[in-house]
Amino acid sequence: ASGVLVAVAFAACGFAGPGRVSTVGEVDFDTPLPIPPLAESTVDADGTRVFSLEAQSGTTEFVPGAASETWGFDGAYLGPTVVAERGERVRVDVANALDVPTTVHWHGMHLPAEMDGGPHQMVEPGETWAPEWTVDQQAATLWYHPHPHGETEQHVARGLAGLFLVRDDAEAALPLPREYGVDDLPVIVQDAAFTDDGRLEGAAQGFAGRLGDELIVNGALGPYAEVRDELVRLRLLNASTARTYAFGWGDGRPIEFIATDGGLLEASVDLDRIVLSPGERAEVLVRMSPGERVTLRSVMTPEAAGLQPAIGGMNGATDEFDVLELRAADALDPAPALPERLVEMPAVATDIAETRMFRLDGFQINGAAMRMDRIDHASTVDTTERWIVENTSSMPHSFHVHDTQFRVASIDGAPPPPELAGWKDTILARPGTEYALVMRFEDYADPDTPYMYHCHLLWHEDQGMMGQFAVVEPGQRATMTEETSHDH
Ligand code: C2O
Ligand code: CU
Ligand code: CU
């Protein structure tokens, strides 16, 4: 009986599940890694690159012969990878073929609030929503997923998610692997639970949300990827609804970390592990030797989640998952050496126009639950703000801000570690820890339509651990028009 209690406590604290603790080799790695197709596009007469995505329902066999009901974009599970160049005008025709309303949010994208795809831009069944904007940010691994208020966890867990890659000249000038699906591999990681006969089912509910005991990578269980290049780039996305990972290599070689949520770091950093909470991305490089096999694994410890070793009986709870096996060909294409400096990283801005406090506690932010008809604050366009995010709860959260990429100025007053020294839109907020984030809201002012900030543990978001802010012209106030204040 005490074993059961311990398992429940693990699930409740949010970083460990009651499920399998694997060892190397426990996952068979017998499925080729699926690569989401690249989204097709056409270019309009006015130069706009037009994509289309259709949210649809279907069935997926994660286990051969066992069909699960899933949702996806242009398919039964996940969605195509959208690629756009910095400076390009893009439009995405988002059609909803589900029988419930949904939205598509462009996570990490700088764009007008009306195009953001948050809970105010619902797409009704049978309707099409056609946001357009000019991509203007550095090359990065962004993603898209639904954001219907109170329903986001369910929509994402059923499979609605995809990557949105931004390319630019600075990244293109570097000798980095960038052949999509060949030496530049998307790795979309989700945890899930299955019935004994292999059908997807709702994972166990804890305080963090639902934690599954199996990993789905690009929609596959136990995948391997064959590579024929010495240097391989992985774009890791934690698309899980609640689980945080600490990715590393099974043989102990360092993780060569090159990019955060918002783009390249100034220089690559060698890490034992890279911790990614829900919503975060990382680009990493791995150097392969001919014929070798190397396993990407997650080993998440209580310390990595910021938990005191003895809180609530969770002492020693570490969960481990095999993620992906890379198999190198016997002859590999050589890789050119990388320059020491990848991109220019400006110093964190100090021209702070406003400092705001965000206290995370009780599935609320600043003691209030999200309301569709309340804009919590207005930020002035083209000014710099400092957001102090303090997690006063006893559990980890994941703090995400729409529209912008921020810099971490300090964590409990100290400079951030190198892996948090780049552009971020989502950050693991450890319990009892204070983060100073510096950000600018540029270009787009709209007093009527808010952007969101929220916990990216999606069940927390759905519970109302979210707030709304508008970006306004100097002196302007945020308003709520009838059109944007209806609750769904
Ligand atoms: Cu990835 Cu507001 O979300
Ligand atoms: Cu977002
Ligand atoms: Cu949370």
UniProtKB/TrEMBL annotation:
Specify the Plastocyanin-like domain's residue ranges.
56-170, 360-472
What PROSITE patterns does the database record attribute to this sequence?
MULTICOPPER_OXIDASE2
Q: Which domain of life is it from?
A: Bacteria
Query: Which keywords annotate this record?
Result: Metal-binding, Oxidoreductase
Q: Which PANTHER family match?
A: BILIRUBIN OXIDASE (PTHR48267:SF1), CUPREDOXIN SUPERFAMILY PROTEIN (PTHR48267)
Family per UniProt? Belongs to the multicopper oxidase family.
Protein name (Swiss-Prot/TrEMBL): Multicopper oxidase family protein
Which organism is the protein's source? Agromyces aurantiacus
The organism's taxonomic lineage, starting at the top? Bacteria, Bacillati, Actinomycetota, Actinomycetes, Micrococcales
